[in-house]
Amino acid sequence: MFDLRQRGVLGINERNRAYIMRCNPRKFYPLVDDKYATKQLCLEHGINTPEPYGLIQTQRDVKQLAEIVKEKKRFVIKPAHGSGGNGIIVIDDVRPIPDAEDLYIKSSGQAMRMPELFFHMDNIISGLFSLGGKSDQVLIEYCVKLHPFFKDISYKGVPDIRIIVYQGVPVMAMLRLPTRASDGKANLHTGGIGIGLSLAKGQTTYAVQFNRRISMHPDHGHALTDLVIPEWDTLVALAAKVESVLGLHYVGIDIVLDAEKGPMLLEANARPGISIQIANNTGLKHRLDAVDAALPGLATMEDKIAFAQARF
To answer: Residue 236: what are its φ and ψ, rounded to 5°?
Structure first.
């Protein structure tokens, strides 16, 4: 226990008491917990985010999906109030079948038919995947195209980058990679890989899967450290801008790098998990303390980003 404190590891109780409760006014929670509302706010402020194709609010309307995605080969179905990546279906291709229903191919390679998608959407609306089990809505949106940089270190799905922003200062970042074990999703609790990133250059430093250190991707065998994320400065600036728009001051910003559209906000999290410390092999507390000490001298967003990249 002493060693954890000495290394500045932030525990969940201290995270809740000292940072989330103090820095995140509850009046803003409904905005950030609603992925569609977050998306609309960001679009109003010129923040790049996957385009929403439609929002289905009742079970009697689930069949509208067929019309919404009629001309699209790739799209994402997700709960508007989901958490932990639960309930998300990524459709990577549509295969017409003569004299039968089309096949919708998930990023993992599994095939589904439209009635199965309707059933899944029914479950979303009933609250199966939502925070607190409350009734939900179904968001259908643009499916991010894998950036060539990730081709050799990602299994089927699209990686994302989580950046913790505190008082406008990016303090810690990690890359999350899909694997076969995680069914092509980038969620760490299902077997995705977490890789620590230096804020200065976006260089990969330390990789873990199931909280154990690894050096190579388990599905491809490619090395995971000493890589540099493209467009890193743009990614960091995007995270800082989203924090300023949301009104929350301890927040996890999840960003994807699209092959055509560049960095895009995927979603924001008012209660970001603490496993990012494992991926970075370092604690958050010392960094948060450093921000508190330096904050009076950081007047602009540019000052805060420069401080983060110099210090972390």
So the answer is: -65, -45
pLDDT digits (tens, 9 = 90+) for 25-47: 999 999 899 999 999 999 999 99
Give residue 207's pLDDT.
96
Spell out the domain ranges in the chain.
Answer: 2-48+146-311, 52-141
Coil, helix or strand for 211?
coil
254 pairs with which residues across the strands? 162, 267
Q: What is the pTM of this model?
A: 0.93
CATH no. for 2-48+146-311: 3.30.470.20
Contacts 24+ apart (CB under 8 A), 220-227: 220/152, 220/153, 220/155, 222/152, 222/153, 224/153, 224/177, 224/193, 224/195, 225/195, 227/149, 227/153, 227/203
DSSP code of residue 85: T
Q: Whose CA is closest to 216, among 173, 152, 276?
A: 152
At 221-275, the pLDDT tens digits run 999 999 999 999 999 999 999 999 999 999 999 999 999 999 999 999 999 999 9
Count the alpha carbons within 13 Å of 134 in the hemisphere toward its beta carbon. 10
267: enclosing H helix or E strand = strand 262-269
Cβ contacts of residue 19 below 8 Å, gap of 6+? 10, 166, 250, 288
Q: Record the tokens describing residue 105, joined without a space.
A: 């191919």
Q: Which residue has the higher pLDDT, 305 or 1?
A: 305
Question: Which helix (H) or strand (E) covers residue 212, if one does?
Answer: strand 212-214
